[in-house]
Design goal:
The complex is a heterodimer of chains A (236) and B (89). Chain A has 236 residues and is an alpha/beta fold. Chain A has helices at 16-26, 69-79, 89-96, 154-159, 220-235; strands spanning 4-9, 30-35, 46-49, 84-87, 103-105, 113-121, 137-144, 148-150, 163-168, 187-191, 197-200. In chain A, strand 1, helix 1 and strand 2 (30-35) form a beta-alpha-beta unit. Chain B has one domain (4-88): Mth169, Chain: A, CATH 3.30.1280.10. Chain B contains two helices and three strands; from the N terminus they run βαβαβ. The chains are: A alpha/beta (236), B alpha+beta (89).
């Protein structure tokens, strides 16, 4: 099975090469870096919108990238069930493109938050969590200024099981102290109804190798391996 | 009549339900601490001043409203759009 992933490069992306490195060299899946204006969906089984500051985050983080031709290509993938994944700035793009519900607002601390956090798995059926267990706690770093998740449809998200990750303590408790940015209900990641589109603020690509992990954990790998598993099941 | 040049000023503000930590910090950590305790609330937002060609003021306003809705210049989940002023240049 020749699986191929695309990582979209917007002007201002800065986590694109990290994602490419982990997929190509750690997970060992053929992955291309594709300039946003050149992206053609038909060549790919999945797409990742990486972290960074696409178009300088001008007007609002993600809004200008949400109008890029790459998003129209990704919309075709979204509709036919291929995984569409947004990490950090990519998550902001996916909410602005309305692939995912809600919005990411400025952190309530007003500060850029860059640290390792713990994420509790709230839904293990999605394109990126199918190899995790419900309630697993993952150590993954965040690095963002606008990560405060907000939605006016919280009840709907809960009922539809669209909340994928919540910020928690190491023991999996959902406390205020564990919430690094003031996100509603500690929400760190969400998915669409079909569960093939996942967005999260933390960076799994920075948590996939022991050498850059303070406690030696490589929980980010499970995120990408789940994505590959989702593609395999889809193609089987 | 030939199109004329107009100036439209708009603001994008977080809805009341979405916290505005910038406004809250200005009020709590600057104004209240410097004796302006009569000021009970500050909300921050974005301001855009746009020049465009239109037949008249109404059309200028309509174009801006349509553009803001079509292109999500404001995020309807979290923000309100206000057209402050439409004026002929």
């Amino acid at each position: 099975m020749n699986i191929k992933i695309a990582v979209i490069q917007f002007p201002g992306a800065n986590c694109d090469l990290d994602a490419i490195h982990v997929l190509n060299n750690v997970i060992n899946v053929k992955t291309d870096l594709v300039w946003h204006n050149h992206f053609k969906e038909e060549k790919y089984d999945g797409v990742i919108l990486p972290g960074g500051f696409a178009f300088g985050d001008y007007l609002r983080a993600g809004i200008i990238a949400a109008h890029s031709p790459a998003i129209e290509e990704a919309r075709i993938m979204l509709k036919d069930g291929r995984p569409v994944v947004g990490i950090c700035n990519g998550f902001q793009v996916l909410t602005e493109a309305q692939f995912l519900p809600g919005a990411l607002l400025q952190n309530d601390s007003l500060k850029f938050a860059c640290k390792w956090v713990n994420l509790k798995v709230e839904n293990n059926n999605t394109a990126c969590t199918n190899k995790m267990n419900l309630g697993d706690v993952l150590a993954i770093p965040i690095a963002h200024g606008e990560g405060r998740y907000y939605t006016d449809k919280l009840k709907e998200l809960e009922e539809n099981n669209q909340i994928v990750f919540k910020y928690s303590t190491e023991e999996g408790e959902l406390t205020e102290e564990a919430n690094p940015n003031g996100s509603l209900e500690n929400i760190a990641g969400v998915c669409n109804l079909e569960q093939n589109c996942v967005g999260l603020m933390p960076h799994p690509e920075r948590a996939s190798e022991e050498i850059i992990s303070p406690k030696g954990t490589i929980h980010g790998q499970i995120f990408f391996k789940s994505m590959i598993e989702f593609i395999k099941r889809r193609l089987a | 009549m030939a199109p004329q040049e107009f100036e439209v000023e708009i603001t994008l503000m977080n809805k009341p339900a979405a916290k505005d930590p910038v406004g809250a910090t200005i009020q709590k950590d600057l104004l209240a601490k410097k004796g302006y305790d009569m000021i009970s609330n500050v909300r921050s937002g974005q301001f855009l001043r746009i020049h465009l060609k239109a037949e008249d003021e109404n059309e200028a306003k309509e174009i801006i409203e349509k553009m803001c809705n079509d292109l999500r210049i404001f995020n309807p989940v979290t923000q309100n759009l206000t057209i402050l002023k439409v004026s002929k240049l």
